[in-house]
């Protein structure tokens, strides 16, 4: 894998050659990845995976026509043929009034902000194996756990370099470390499974494998002997590890390309009061050691913290340059980029600000409801906002968690769910999208 300086040099070479052979504008992106993962099952080594790869992509414009090509061969001579092929492709492409590089005055200038995304720790496979064994052993030691789907540990490194023909050239690196376990409890047809994991940028921040394993084991045992429930309308409490998906549906609905295609259920809701006035949802690409932090976006624009929802109101769309031109706005620093194709959009580190009530407070007064810990399937209509997903978790009776439940379906409409959403005060930054415990009243539940 190339160093960051080498990667940036290769990208600059591609862009320079593109301009020399007739491109009006161009950008090039390099992405290199290296990872190692070790998994065990029943205390025996099951798999060791190591991978390393790198690719570079070129996008160029001839008038209003554009094309993209990519390659994994970093030899300068090979890259020259890539440029010629891309120019030929662009000349045959249809015109696009909205395509083009990002506005030059919005590009990140100077040094990239220090986000501490790359770790110097580089554990050997033997160390990963020990961590994998420890997390699985802790999970299997929980009384009631009867089998294992395995435990694992991993490390990875990603390097990104981006160069444009109108003045942007920069790069950054990230590292990742992870630990996970998945186990089963019970016997025969009554067995239940659950898991736990933790991922971080720096190894020093990762949770002890014994704690992760014990959490996986206790979760699996708690799901034993699920009861059937009658269908009806009831309040639902969402555990933070699944409640984040609700915010994920919001993010998908405010993506500029979806708005430009008129395929979002929030199409006419800019500035609308979607949530309670106390709700605030933040996108923060500059969080140090954040799982989705980045100093610049996929088009070279500076990134910055954004309130996606402020006072319960939707503040704007997530825009790359193309969707911004189509909608008559300005790009917001949310462009995402792979090696091939044009940029899309994505949020970064998103969180819903905590409320004032505890999770226990949210359950008080619920005579009969659900505490949902797992969601299954993808039954969400992004055009209408209709929501229907399989779920499992626990019955809530008289304000307390009771028996496990499984094979149920919860349904509603995302606009109604947003309006009814109440957050607890237990926000923890653990994932890419973080929410506290959430309560939503009035959802339909179909029992098994």
UniProtKB/TrEMBL annotation:
One of this protein's Pfam families, by short name? Answer: PmbA_TldD_1st
- MF-aspect GO terms: metallopeptidase activity
GO cellular component term, pick one: cytosol
Using the record's annotation, list all stretches that form the Metalloprotease TldD/E C-terminal domain.
Answer: 231-447
One of the GO biological process terms:
proteolysis
Residue span of the signal peptide, if any? none
Metalloprotease TldD/E central domain segment(s): 121-224
Q: Which InterPro entries match?
A: Metalloprtase-TldD/E_C (IPR045569), Metalloprtase-TldD/E_cen_dom (IPR045570), Metalloprtase-TldD/E_N (IPR002510), PmbA (IPR047657), TldD/PmbA_N (IPR035068), TldD/PmbA_sf (IPR036059)
Q: Which domain of life is it from?
A: Bacteria
Q: Where is the Metalloprotease TldD/E N-terminal domain?
A: 26-90
Q: What family classification does the UniProt entry report for this protein?
A: Belongs to the peptidase U62 family.
Q: What is this protein called?
A: PmbA protein
